[in-house]
UniProtKB/TrEMBL annotation:
Site feature: Interaction with DNA: H43, R161, R162, D165, Y170, W177, R338, R536
Family under the similarity heading: Belongs to the type IA topoisomerase family.
Basic and acidic residues bias (residue ranges): 472-490
Region of interest: Disordered: 468-502, 728-750
Listed GO biological process terms: DNA topological change
Annotated protein name in UniProt: DNA topoisomerase 1
Annotated spans, Interaction with DNA: 185-190
Subunit-structure text: Monomer.
Catalyzed chemical reaction(s): ATP-independent breakage of single-stranded DNA, followed by passage and rejoining
Naturally occurring in which organism (per UniProt): Streptomyces antimycoticus
Gene3D superfamilies the UniProt entry points to: 3.40.50.140, Topoisomerase I, domain 2, Topoisomerase I, domain 3, Topoisomerase I, domain 4
Domain Toprim, first and last residues per copy: 13-136
GO molecular function annotations of the record: DNA binding; DNA topoisomerase type I (single strand cut, ATP-independent) activity; metal ion binding
Amino acid sequence: MSPTTSETAQGGRRLVIVESPAKAKTIKGYLGPGYVVEASVGHIRDLPNGAAEVPDKYTGEVRRLGVDVEHDFQPVYVVNSDKKSQVKKLKELLADSDELFLATDEDREGEAIAWHLQEVLKPKVPVRRMVFHEITKDAIRAAVANPRELNQRLVDAQETRRILDRLYGYEVSPVLWKKVMRGLSAGRVQSVATRLVVERERERIAFRSAEYWDLTGTFATGRAGDVSDPGTFGARLTAVDGLRVAQGRDFTSLGQLKDGVNVLQLDEAGARSLATALANTAFTVRSVESKPYRRSPYAPFRTTTLQQEASRKLGFGAKATMQVAQKLYENGYITYMRTDSTVLSDTAVTAARAQVTQLYGADYLPDKPRTYAGKVKNAQEAHEAIRPSGDRFRTPAETGLTGDQFRLYELIWKRTVASQMKDAIGNSVTVKIAGQASDGRDAEFSASGKTITFHGFMKAYVEGADDPNAELDDRERRLPQVTEGDRLSAEEITADGHATKPPARYTEASLVKELEEREIGRPSTYATILGTILDRGYVFKKGTALVPSFLSFAVVNLLEKHFGRLVDYDFTAKMEDDLDRIARGEAEAVPWLKRFYFGEGAQAGAAEAGNGDGDHLGGLKELVTDLGAIDAREISSFPVGDGIVLRVGRYGPYVERPTEIEGGTGRRADVPDDMPPDELTVEYAEELLAKPSGEFELGPDPETGRMIVAKDGRYGPYVTEVLPRTFPRAVRTPSSRAPRPSSSRCPWTR
């Protein structure tokens, strides 16, 4: 009998609403007759996207914001235009049903979607909230048998977040339109994430390299070596006459030795002289220090650690990781992928331990199951870590998966199994070698080694690193078996020059890690945030590195100077704390929103607001009302040096030498949109200005109405139309170009 016409043993038909069609298809197969499973296809109702969507009864600020700020911040919800037909279908199915199960995701957003469904469908039959964190037959049937009520506290918390983000975006974004460029956007977490990327680039721009030298020696024991006891090994000079030799960590970002650091900074001449003086020296082992080495397994994946590892090991962006994980979840291969918990259920622990014994043997299984404490503040521990679904884990080969789904499942499976394995153990050794140079100086070299005697969990999984040159945990470095006083000969001693490097740009993985460590935003939103700052043109990719555009410098400059608190890291983290307190029922939403929007009270007026540097006592409304102090040209102008200024204009960045510098004839030249800001040197700006350049409006295209301009590009003059910033980035972004070497660091920082 068809599920759409059959009745359950209790005498009725049950409608189950999930979010996606793929999930609906999987769950329908587990529930069978008596159940109709249909998808809402995501959100069916939200705040309006513009005044045109707001019902006519609303006027003024309510029509603009979609929120009635004068009446306890009541939101105006509208059914999305592309969901009206689906809502109609759901209502028709509900009319023939005797019970409604709202089976949306178990997080805050899922709870809010369930509430919106209930509000729109207005069911006259019993309503149950059905939750599960994996899509298996047992989990789905258990969820049906044990429903709960809607959690109104979670709904209210999600609604508060939505209202807050609407007020932030709809009040601050128009300021960017007026003062920087049309089509830009600001957001509570998005703007802070952009600021982090810009600040890192500022550090790179201000960076000055320091040069330092040391020696590397290759030493021989005089014995025939083998794999377990090598005959030769390398060591690096660490001290001369007891004074430590300077390394990169001893220098500031400006290329100077740090205050209070007592080290010997060798230059090239000094290093080569010492190497020559040590040419015929007899060396001895000064000390051997051996310590036991132990490394415990990594915790099972949560959302952010999965994104980081998928970036390091698979080259996936955060958005791609979540898209693949969503498919794996909906098709029953993994548990729910938006979680900040590292907890495994008893069933999962049993499954993982069984697989350890089966695949690696009992020697790799610890006596007791491992548990992992949550590291994320306000983590929802009721959720599980991301793991293979079911009470028996399928090996990757057993899944039948291919491509990206196979690769991500394999990563999750390995990490989960490894989390229930024994520690890796071994020994770490430090050998110090001494020799007297021909000029009497005492030189000390040092070598470090590590041997792993039992690999434990490393047989299954080793975590990646953000630094491609970093040494992974399973890397062994074997040293000869030597004792104090042993004589060694130097086969070669060479002088090596080094230069300190600017701080590395963020990658998607390291930016996610930074946001989480600063407690900014929620793990479930990071993929969306990264997608937004890339799509908006605030950031672009150079390899895996996130590079801020010149446009983002102008945006962050404005926000820091005039909305400082809104992009302050601590303030943003505190807002997250407050939102979590609201979710726990420890604070009320409306008073909190009033303080955020209107300020602390009457005393928070303009007179007490300060000087516009962002340390503002008033609320958001007051901040965006008085824009007279914001000089649009100043916000978008950055000195390059030698009188040259970089400006961010309507059609992109350009460099300009004002008329008073040029003796009455000002010049300007376009800067490539995809040029990393730290590569804009005075020399390169001079090259651009020396070329015939300019941007001339030729008139609007009669078909599209868009302005046609003549520009001078890298390969000569060309004509193009000015596309709106809302166009897909693939259309707007120039092709990638090779890094440009520069003869000096760029001096501009703001």
